[in-house]
Design a protein that fits this description.
globular; mainly alpha; single chain; 232 residues
């Protein structure tokens, strides 16, 4: 019970941050760096990408849901690879093709992706509709959405075309490195938790907490979209 309370409290604290932080927020110093960058700056952009993923709780909540019931390392690798392919594709193509999408709406869908995965873990779709969606396809598709959300934010900064492609690639490499580091820590905690006697009785509540966090994130983004008049 204590574990569930702590997890719920942590997720709720994350979800109750201001709306601006939920729209793939970028620190003020990072904004200045991106706006002023010119030429190939591979290492700084790789570091920026890694830091974004490590602190990107929306991505990590979704990935937590994805790996929640994965016990074999090869399965974890498969799903993480699918997410990385989707994320990388729309991140690169979205920026290079100048695909402008409302950031709040994209982040609302990202919040709903967390809800979807939690419901999938709870077997809700099989119970409600008698169908179990292909988790691999869903992971890839939501990877596209997560990458598009980040691409939208990068486009807002109007990066210099000088060194744009190498810097984007470096940033994406950093994102994947950060993803590996963050997931490694999550897997260590999950593996320890799974060996405890209380895991079977707490897994349901943990996924409900994840789902609740996803709903709150999506709600904040929709509120920011309509209340702030940013829908275009």
């Amino acid at each position: 019970m204590r574990v569930v309370r702590r997890v719920t409290l942590a997720l709720s604290s994350i979800a109750l941050w201001p709306t601006v932080l939920l729209a793939h927020g970028v620190a003020a110093g990072d904004k200045i760096f991106i706006l002023q960058s010119c030429g190939i700056l591979a290492i700084p952009f790789a570091h920026l990408g890694a830091r974004h993923m490590v602190t990107g709780y929306d991505h990590l909540l979704f990935l937590l849901g994805v790996i929640f019931f994965l016990y074999r390392l090869k399965d974890v690798a498969l799903y993480v690879t699918l997410f990385a392919i989707g994320h990388s594709t729309t991140l690169l193509l979205g920026v290079l093709a100048q695909v402008h999408v409302n950031a709040h709406l994209v982040d609302a869908v990202i919040g709903l992706s967390v809800v979807y995965k939690a419901l999938d873990n709870l077997s809700a779709f099989r119970i409600w509709f008698g169908v179990q969606p292909d988790a691999r396809v869903a992971t890839l598709l939501f990877g596209f959405v997560h990458g598009l959300g980040l691409a939208t934010k990068i486009l807002d900064f109007e990066m210099s075309p000088d060194g744009l492609l190498p810097n984007l690639i470096a940033f994406n490499v950093g994102v994947e490195i950060g993803q590996i580091l963050a997931l490694s820590a999550i897997l260590i905690v999950m593996n320890h938790w799974r060996r405890t006697r209380g895991f079977p009785s707490l897994e349901y509540r943990a996924n409900v907490a994840i789902m609740a966090a996803g709903f709150v994130m999506a709600g904040y983004q929709l509120a920011g979209c309509f209340i702030l008049g940013s829908l275009i």
